[in-house]
């Protein structure tokens, strides 16, 4: 089996949502396209309390939450209950290397 070149396997854009406000998520939503990924970090993990924000994003966008930030804000249990994808520090590093570009939304 021939593996595609690394460039062909790299996703397009990693969006980092740092704010719990709706402005950051709305700006991110407008810029996202299929093949992108969104990682909720810092206070952005509080978006989980408003429901599943991934449902507001275009189809084909992968959604993740920072495990350390969820734990720091007492949201680890709600994240487990919601069955969202959670990443630790190693997963964050992998996401960064697997995307061509990275945008921050505050």
* Order of H and E elements: HEHEEHHEHE
Count of individual beta strands = 5
Query: What integer value in Å does the Rg equal?
Result: 14 Å
Helical residue percent? 25-40%
Task: Point out poorly predicted stretches.
Answer: 1-7
Mean pLDDT: 87
Kindly give the count of domains.
Answer: 1
Largest sheet report: 5 strands, parallel
CATH topology: Hypothetical Protein Ychn, Chain: A
Please tell me the CATH architecture by its name: 3-Layer(aba) Sandwich
Principal-axes geometry comes out as globular
Sheet with the most strands: spatial strand order:
4-3-2-1-5
Report how far apart the termini are: 43 Å
What do we call the CATH homologous superfamily?
A: DsrEFH-like
How would you describe what is shown here?
This protein is an alpha/beta fold. The protein has one domain: DsrEFH-like (Hypothetical Protein Ychn, Chain: A), CATH 3.40.1260. About 35% of the residues lie in helices and about 25% in strands. The protein is built from 5 helices and 5 strands. The protein has helices at about 5-10, 20-30, 65-70, 75-80, 90-95, and strands spanning about 10-15, 35-40, 60-65, 85, 100-105. A 5-stranded parallel sheet has the order 4-3-2-1-5. Helix 2 links the parallel strand 1 and strand 2. It is globular and about 30 Å long. The termini are far apart. Residues about 1-5 have low confidence and may be disordered.
Helix/strand layout:
Blueprint: H1 6-9, E1 11-17, H2 22-31, E2 37-40, E3 62-66, H3 67-72, H4 76-82, E4 86-87, H5 89-97, E5 99-105
Parallel strand pairs: 1-2, 1-5, 2-3, 3-4
